[in-house]
Amino acid sequence: MSIEDRKKAFEDKYAHDAELHFKVEARTCKLFGLWLAKEIGLDDDTAKSYAGDVIAANLEEAGYDDVIRKVRPDIDSKGLDLSDHVLEVKLAEFEAQAKEQLMNEVA
After folding, report:
1. What pTM, to 2 d.p., does this model score?
2. Number of domains in the chain
3. DSSP structure class, residue 81
4. Range of the domain at 97
5. pLDDT tens, position by position, for the chain (107 residues)?
6. Cβ distance 87 to 68 under 8 Å?
């Protein structure tokens, strides 16, 4: 294998990994948004739109802090007792679920 072949292989792997990471984060945010929409009492149509807003919020910065900042006012306005820690745990659960779903779709 030549140096150019190896370089191309590494570039392809990096692009694939980046795309997979993006898909996992988007799916995580969708699952989280749908869950939270139910918690705050939104109907199904509004929940889908809300989940889309959560996905869009995640594009602001790396990680899920931007997502928590986006949903915090909604949680507080409904008087729900959901700490940032609880939200982080739910995000971690949904991230694991998203990874599993995506892997099953590929298989």
Report:
1. 0.86
2. 1
3. -
4. 24-106
5. 788 878 888 787 878 777 888 999 999 999 999 999 999 999 999 999 999 999 999 988 888 999 999 999 999 999 999 999 999 999 999 999 999 999 898 76
6. yes
